[in-house]
Structure formats: structure tokens, C-alpha cells
Design goal:
Helix content: over 70%
Structural class: mainly alpha
Radius of gyration: 21 Å
Shape: globular
Distance between the termini: 15 Å
Number of strands: 4
Oligomer: single chain
Number of domains: 1
Length: 263
């Protein structure tokens, strides 16, 4: 393999990992916000009754909005760089997410400057406002949420790459949609319930019915959006194949399927 081909492979891995890492870290940070999907679209809450005791609406974590980008990027990395590539970026991302939470936890304990509190002491409508309290409340997530999130992320990624490669062994280079959606179907089922179970059932005060109900909604959203975005996989494949060239692209996918990637 010549230097030009090595450069293209390295550039592709860097770009894909940058997209993956940026969206994964962002999703973890913004995940503290829970939003109403119905009200955002101008609709009334559905008020579904789950398990006869829990009223459920389409309330989702803001991090779920960009998680489908992580799913798609995972499958593309898996396609061209195999299990080694996905595992490397997954563990690196988990480490950087943990680092981000440590830094955020540290800065929330810093004493705020008086002038900063004063200039932000009121809202535009004249109501009293404590910006330091708001900052700390938004960014200081509990240990349970952090542990649940990181555990779910790593489990989801490792299961995704395993199922993807198993399906690839059956389908070969064809049926990208099948291995992509199949791996997402399994991995995000685990991810959706593990994070809620650890964060809000083991460390929190949610009932098991609440965990199951909210987990179902989160899972349905993630899988539905991932399925809807499947055509982007084919677009991405086309762009990458043109960038790499047919021969290099086929060589990389063959090496990835045999776990012989250079990564």
C-alpha cells in the first residue's frame, strides 16, 4: 500500500472519529435536559397509561436528538475499520466523557465572581435569577447518571459491533441496511434500559414501571430515527468509496470483516 492510500485511510478514520467523538460528548453534556416532543411540535401530550400507574408522554432527553449520528458513524467505522476501530474510539470517548464530567464537577465548585452574579441577577422580565445556581444545576449531574450513561454507552457500542460483524458474516458486502439496523435494534435496546436502570432505579427513586415505560419511549425513538436515517449510510458509503477509490475501499472492508484493519 502506497503513502497516498495510507493517508486517505488515516484521514478517513480521523474524520469519522471526530464526528463520533463530538456528538457523543455533546449528547452526554446536553442529556440533562428533558424535553416534550409533543409540545415542541405544537401537539398535546398523549398521556398514555403504562402499567396502570404511570402516565407517559413523549418526553426525551436532549441527548437523544443527536445519538442517531453516533449510531450511523459507529456502523461506518465498523464497515471500514472493523471491531478494532469501533472499540478504540469507544473506549477513548468514554475516557474523554469521564474527563469532561470531572472538569465540569470541579468548575461548579469554584466560587462565582460577585459582578457576574450582579449583572445576571434578573431575567429580562425583571424576576430574580441566580445564574450560579442555574449553572450548577444544569451541569452538575449525579454519580448515578454518569455511571449509568458511561456503562450504557460502552455496552451499547460493544454489542453493536458484535452484532454488526455477525450479520456482516452472513450478508457479505450486501444489505448494509440489514446489519446497520439489526445491530442498532439490539444495542439500543440494551442502552435505553441500562442507563435508566442504573441512574434512576439503582441510584435514584424511580419505580421499575417508570424505568420500563420511559425506556420503551426512548428505545422507540432511537430505533425509529436510526431506521429513518438508514439512507444516509448509503450516501456516506458512496462518498467514502469515491474518496478511497474502488480497490482501496473493497480492501478496507475485507480487512475490517476479517478483523485485519490497520487500526
Amino acid at each position: 500500500m502506497n503513502s497516498s492510500e495510507n493517508s486517505r485511510k488515516s484521514n478517513l478514520f480521523i474524520i469519522l472519529c471526530s464526528i463520533f467523538l463530538t456528538n457523543a460528548v455533546l449528547a452526554e453534556i446536553i442529556g440533562v435536559k428533558i424535553f416534550s416532543a409533543e409540545k415542541t411540535l405544537g401537539l398535546n401530550p398523549v398521556n398514555w397509561n403504562f402499567f396502570d400507574t404511570y402516565i407517559l408522554d413523549f418526553n426525551l432527553t436532549a441527548g437523544a436528538v443527536i445519538w442517531p449520528v453516533v449510531f450511523i458513524t459507529t456502523d461506518i467505522i465498523n464497515e471500514y475499520f472493523g471491531k478494532k476501530g469501533v472499540r478504540k474510539i469507544s473506549f477513548l470517548t468514554a475516557g474523554l466523557v469521564a474527563y469532561a464530567f470531572l472538569v465540569i464537577s470541579f468548575v461548579t465548585w469554584l466560587t462565582p465572581a460577585d459582578f457576574w452574579l450582579d449583572v445576571n441577577a434578573t431575567t429580562p422580565t425583571g424576576e430574580s435569577f441566580n445564574i450560579s445556581y442555574a449553572f450548577n444545576t444544569i451541569f452538575r449531574q449525579g454519580l448515578g447518571i454518569i455511571l449509568g450513561s458511561l456503562t450504557a454507552f460502552l455496552l451499547g457500542q460493544l454489542i453493536d459491533v458484535y452484532v454488526f460483524q455477525k450479520l456482516r458474516a452472513i450478508t457479505g458486502e450486501k444489505k448494509i441496511w440489514l446489519r446497520a439496523t439489526g445491530s442498532t435494534f439490539v444495542s439500543q435496546f440494551i442502552d435505553s434500559f441500562v442507563v435508566l436502570g442504573i441512574a434512576f432505579y439503582i441510584f435514584g427513586n424511580w419505580s421499575l414501571s417508570q424505568v420500563l415505560a420511559v425506556g420503551i419511549i426512548n428505545y422507540l425513538y432511537k430505533f425509529t430515527v436510526a431506521l429513518a436515517l438508514t439512507p444516509l449510510l448509503y450516501v456516506a458509503h458512496g462518498m467514502i468509496d469515491r474518496y478511497l477509490g474502488k480497490n482501496l475501499s473493497e480492501q478496507m472492508m475485507e480487512e475490517a470483516s476479517e478483523d485485519k484493519s490497520f487500526i
